[in-house]
Specification:
- This protein is of the alpha/beta class.
- It has a single domain (2-295), classed as Vaccinia Virus protein VP39 (Rossmann fold).
- 32% of the residues lie in helices and 19% in strands.
- The chain has 11 helices and 9 strands.
- The protein has helices at 2-14, 17-23, 30-37, 59-70, 87-106, 120-128, 158-165, 173-183, 206-215, 275-278, 294-303, and strands at 47-53, 77-83, 110-116, 141-146, 185-196, 217-224, 240-246, 254-260, 269-274.
- The longest helix has 20 residues, at 87-106.
- It is globular and about 65 Å long.
- It starts with a helix and ends in a 51-residue tail after the last helix.
């Protein structure tokens, strides 16, 4: 993985800022890739087929291969299908897969891989269409691992129209990638994805949540306390989460919520919640409520005892306009005539000398 991470860093340095900004695709650092690969529950199948949608330089699929090679019970055959449209990244992806092939050979695993330098969503639609007539003729995967592009898609774009054909209305590519990858899993297939946390609530992702939670069984969600450290090389400040799920229409009884400061942190806090606490059965918007610890759970239980809503109090709420870490120059420890409260669901350290 150290060798693969050097390839990732070399590829990142050669990507132009304009190209990266257009796709909002950030290559996965080795610690994050290893954490994700280790979240898979089932790796002892005799044959494994892995989908990596938006493979980049191949960090995620390499971490998956590393996990398989370290297991006592290894698959006899491994097939990897990696999608990547950037010609520069494809060159590094070839090197990564060559390293993976050498490691698999040492571990007694027969590796067959294919790089598809085509649009993932468009090609996935091609793969999904035969299933309407003859499911036996369509390609399906036992595992999927992905760090999708985060770019927004406008109303009349090609990805938007393609996703509508599989029933999904969304404004962001990462939701389209994750849902499409879930559809390409075989029954009881398993996926691990990393993405912004924004899909868990809000109206923009309501359609995605409904379809996604009908397709997969949510098993584990990993949270990072630090916004800065997950993709520190690319200065990504979004709140990022990792989701592990299994393709089953019926949800499990409980969901594991784990938290670490960063992917490099060995100290991981973990607890389980009933699925009905994570997604309320009567909630038409299907919000995904992620409580990192028992204290947060007790706070929610206390809040549920409140008898009035915000609108009952004559207040309205606008979220996302002000974020604490982007407004540190304006934070004050003592209220004044020209200040207003910043209400935020976590304790924040005020800047020094303020």
């Amino acid at each position: 993985m150290a060798e693969i991470d050097l390839l990732r860093l070399a590829a990142s340095q050669k990507l132009t800022a304009a190209s990266q900004a257009a796709k909002e695709q950030f290559l996965t650092p080795a610690p994050v890739a290893q954490l994700m690969a280790e979240m898979f529950e089932t790796t002892d199948l005799p044959e494994i087929s892995l989908l990596d949608a938006g493979a980049g330089a191949g960090s995620l699929l390499a971490a998956f291969v590393a996990v398989l090679c370290q297991r006592q019970r290894r698959p006899k055959r491994l097939r990897i299908v990696a999608y990547e449209i950037d010609a520069l990244l494809v060159r590094y992806l070839h090197q990564t897969l060559s390293i993976c092939a050498a490691e698999c050979k040492l571990s007694g695993i027969s590796l067959d891989f294919e790089i598809r330098q085509v649009d993932f969503i468009e090609d996935a639609l091609r793969l999904l269409q035969p299933a309407l007539f003859d499911p036996a003729t369509s390609e399906r995967f036992t595992h999927a691992i992905l760090n999708p592009p985060y770019a927004k898609i406008n109303l009349h774009s090609k990805p938007r129209s393609l996703l509508k054909k599989i029933g999904l209305e969304t404004t962001n590519l990462y939701a389209g990638f994750i849902f499409t990858a879930a559809l390409l899993l075989q029954s009881n297939g398993e996926m691990v994805s990393i993405s912004p946390r924004s899909f868990c609530n809000g109206l923009y992702f309501r359609d995605f949540r409904r379809l996604f939670l009908k397709t997969i069984s949510l098993r584990q969600v990993h949270l990072f306390e630090s916004r800065q450290n997950t993709f520190c090389d690319d200065n990504v400040l979004q709140e990022i989460i990792v989701v592990q799920a299994v393709k089953q229409k019926k949800q499990g009884a409980r969901v594991q919520i784990s938290t670490s400061f960063s992917a490099q942190d060995d100290f991981i806090m973990s607890h389980e919640l009933p699925y009905t606490d994570v997604v309320h059965p009567t909630d038409p918007a299907q919000f995904i409520r992620l409580l990192p610890d028992g204290l947060s759970q007790r706070v929610v239980e206390q809040m549920e005892q409140f008898s009035h809503t915000v609108s009952d109090l004559g207040l309205t709420v606008s979220t996302g306009r002000v974020v604490d870490f982007r407004a540190q120059a304006y934070l004050r420890a003592v209220p004044a005539a020209d200040t207003v409260p910043l209400i935020y669901p976590r304790l924040c350290r005020l800047p020094e000398n303020n």
